[in-house]
Amino acid sequence: MSFFKTARPFIIAGPCSAETKEQVMTVAEALAGMNVQLMRAGVWKPRTRPGAFEGNGAVALEWLREAKQQYNIPITIEVATPEHVEMALQNGVDVLWLGARTVVNPFQVQRLADALKGVDIPVMVKNPVSPDVDLWQGAIERMEKAGITQVAAIHRGFSGYAGAAGYRNQPNWPIPIELKRRKPDLCMIGDPSHITGDRNRVAEVAQKVLDMHFDGLMIETHPDPENAWSDAAQQVTPARLAQILAGLVVREENTHDMSGQEQLEYLRQLMDTLDAEIVDLVARRMELSGKIGAVKKGCNMTVFQPARWSEIVETRGARGAMQGLTPEFVTELYERIHHESIRIQLSVMADQPAKDSAATDSTK
Ligand code: PEP
Ligand code: MN
């Protein structure tokens, strides 16, 4: 059985970074007394900009080895180079994970896969920073092809424009759901710490992760989160972790076993995600309207152009029909969108700000 299936939910906790020996020992002691299956800690940290704390490297591996021996808790760290893999294996690290910034690069993932040939250690693969299910799947398959039999995927959200919920890394549930559809046996873990970037929202997203039928959670835990050397805003204390875990509602594993209420909740979460995307897309479309208005103004063209409008009704109606939508519905929807677009273009013509609209100037 996969290590990731030895508890449900499977809980991974520990600091963003291994900072000092004392910090590592303190967390390990706290976690060993809780229902936590695996302790995480960053030994080499992929930092966005130079100058930030980049991890303690080799010495932190010694602290982790000692923590494992003393408190009998398995250890996981992030590896980003073949040298990291080698040092992790030498120091008895139990599980490896590939970070979001590594998974975007197939060359690097392949180098790691090559370093892992013949070593069947459990590996967790975080989603790449961009919402690309093929890239994520590809990294997992490179691990599998190298002979790794226990692989888990970690959804840690996607970077980019802040979504409706304003998280640090926007979750995009249809992507892990699609990955799971393609690979039904894959263990799925959610990382509410990196999704939210906010310790006060970790519990709500942890519950959502379980409601999406994931197998486990990775929650950054630090004895003194406010003074953490990395990701200070999102880490929780061991005491808070215990509260979060105690408050989780673990529902049935199978969709077929879900009650009506649970199915409704599940479907509504999918719908919330789609709606957030619809609103974001409409906002982007309105932004284009503003730019089109400026071009029309520069060329002395009318805002309303009947031929273009007929073409929109026809092409969008045809596309809608292909998706099973009635022409009446699509036409009405576009009448409303077109109306707003015209309003925005008129205000551009008149040199007035398009109040209450999503139109933004590209020079903003
Ligand atoms: C981390 O887990 O601390 C980390 C760097 O995560 P990610 O790769 O998801 O950004
Ligand atoms: Mn972190």
Number of domains: 2
| Total count of strands | 8
- The gross shape turns out to be elongated
Question: If strands are numbered along the chain, what order do they take across the biggest sheet?
Answer: 1-2-3-4-5-6-7-8
Question: What class, by secondary structure content?
Answer: alpha/beta
Provide a descriptive summary of the structure in words.
The protein is α/β, with parallel strands linked by helices. The chain folds into 2 domains: 3-247, TIM Barrel; 258-359, Chorismate Mutase Domain, subunit A (Up-down Bundle). Helix content is 49%, strand content 9%. The longest helix has 40 residues, at 260-299. It is elongated, with a radius of gyration of 24 Å. Residues 16, 220, 230-231 line the site of manganese (II) ion (MN).
Could you give the topology of this structure?
Layout: E1 10-14, H1 21-32, E2 38-40, H2 58-71, E3 75-78, H3 82-90, E4 95-98, H4 100-103, H5 106-116, E5 123-126, H6 133-145, E6 151-155, H7 174-182, E7 187-190, H8 192-196, H9 202-211, E8 216-220, H10 238-247, H11 260-299, H12 306-322, H13 327-349
Parallel strand pairs: 1-2, 1-8, 2-3, 3-4, 4-5, 5-6, 6-7, 7-8
Helix pairs in contact: 1-2, 5-6, 6-7, 11-13, 12-13
Bound molecules: phosphoenolpyruvate (PEP) and manganese (II) ion.
Task: Give a quick precis of the structure.
With 364 residues, the chain is of the alpha/beta class.
